[in-house]
Batch of 2 targets.
Target 1
Amino acid sequence: MSRLGDELKEIRREIDLLEIKFSRVAFDFAQTDEYEQEGSVTPIDWIRHNCHMTRPAASSSIKVGAYLAKLAETLGAVQRGAIGFAHIAVLAWTAHHTGSRFNELELLPKACKSSPGRLVDICWKYEHARGPEDFAKRQAAQIEDRRLRLNGWADGTVTLSGIFDPVAGAAIRTALDPLAKPNGPDDKREIEQRYADAFVELVSGGEQKAQIQVTATVDMLAGHLGAEAADVLYARPVCTESVRRLACDSAITRVLFDSDSVVLDVGRAKRTVEGPTRRALEARDGGCVWPGCDRRAKWCAAHHVVHWIKGGRTDLENMVLLCHRHHTLVHEGGWRIAATEEGRWLAAPPPTEFSPWVRGPDPALLRTAS
């Protein structure tokens, strides 16, 4: 390593240690009301305005400060220069998501061998293995947070911006990437322009179909406790129900492993329900069967009422048409769809969670009664 390289590494280590010191003070600051006295709504807002930081950076600083006590070994690794502040920030968020199930000693060796970006994927899988239900809830919230905004300008220009969950982002990337490749050595378009042209081509009737690559274990697909989240090309790891939705009636490239990381199956899955069966399903349901939904059949997926991973058959008796939104609600959202004896379909929301705390008698009433 050159002298300049050694100097850079040492400077970076000193910056990381200062970041940790900043995080400790930031967390202590967040426990006071000083930010309110100066007119800020949250400590994050005060820090980002007064310390010239982005909101995610300010939030991560407070989170690291909150979990330093649980990251003693990780802190030592930063002091030695084995990892950086970006690593400890990832581990702090993982500790936040997994609570009492977090064990830094299970992740620190992997952190020392990984870049911060790679560590994010490792930690997402760790979170799924130790709390699949909480992981799925966070992913369902990401789906509900999806937004797409189109604004028209006076000259006719349209600006488009959006936020998408990991699976939706992977679908967009896999659909656009083949169309966004440079058209030969003379193609001087920047990547953003190529993506814009690819998007226009796609929505204008192009034949390119998104083929999403999913890598998962059989245990994960079966919903076994302790199974890691599945890998999706161009996206962060996803939960069991997202994979099941994709596998229900989607075009995916599958790679299945057993619990010993032995490849069991690699293949490109064509649309599960097609041909005469698909036509019969469209004729029977006419569109999405969700009560009150008027999405036409061509915009719907064939949902297995009993998923094939649990022994459900791919036949008309076990399938219904659901639009993308309602198909997502059934899988990631925890809703259930069921038929009545009259042939109508009912949608049942997920069970409501009630607090186990029960209020006791009012002492004032007891005194009055006595």
Target 2
Amino acid sequence: MLFLRRCLPVLLLCLLPAALARPGDDALPGGDGLSARDIYQRVLDNKLDTSYMEHRMVSTDPGGSEQTLAFWSRFKDLRAPGSAPQGAVISKTVLKFTMPFDKRDTAYLFIEKKGGEDEGFHYSRARVRVSRISPAKESIFGSDFSLDDLAVVRHIDDATYARLPDEEVQDKSVWVIDVFHKPESKPAYAKSRLYVDKQRNVPLKTRHWDEAGVEVKELDIPSEKIRQIAGVWIPMESTMHDLSEKTQSVLYLDRVIPNPQIADSVFAPMLLPRLDQEAAPHDGG
């Protein structure tokens, strides 16, 4: 308090709101000695190196009408050990839709970069050609998931962190951390609050705020729907709530093949129209 009393009034007014909005990473270390950054790194590291997955998404509007989508994805984690240079590619994800019929052959490509704007590409039979999109804002066929929600990995340096008191979610002890996404990384959200299962490093709940400080979305993962595959804990079901539209989308993961070999050509934007809906790769192959 002595320091604050000695500060000039103008300096106090300028600095105090920022200090309250963004507490330091070690503001609440906790008895386990983990900082918020340490916890978030555990969440980031709970990922397969590569994967093939088959998904279903069921979206419900306020009137109860449902839309069901099916698609497969291929993912490759490209985070380099140590400090990756600015603009380095972190991950690549391609999605291709298989149903309903009018959305078949639609494809998305997401290329995530450290400390810069990610790249997104879209192809559909209606558009005929591949076009660039903004991944953070691209809603998947009007669902509550954006391309950023489905494909993002994140680099630890693309945000700052603050730890909050531990809580219980679904009868599980969870770490609670705030993640302040840096504007230069062009994030989908300004701030996210994660409630991370201490045993499995999976957020059982994630709340998102926009730049105006309005809470816009919440992602819930049922604890009993988390499975361990190839040493990684993976949610087989997750529900995204749009708090303003009062809609929700449930993402089901029907099949996972961990760590298959994936050719780099799969992630070429100009090949999106010719991505065949080939059979899934062999398990582990």
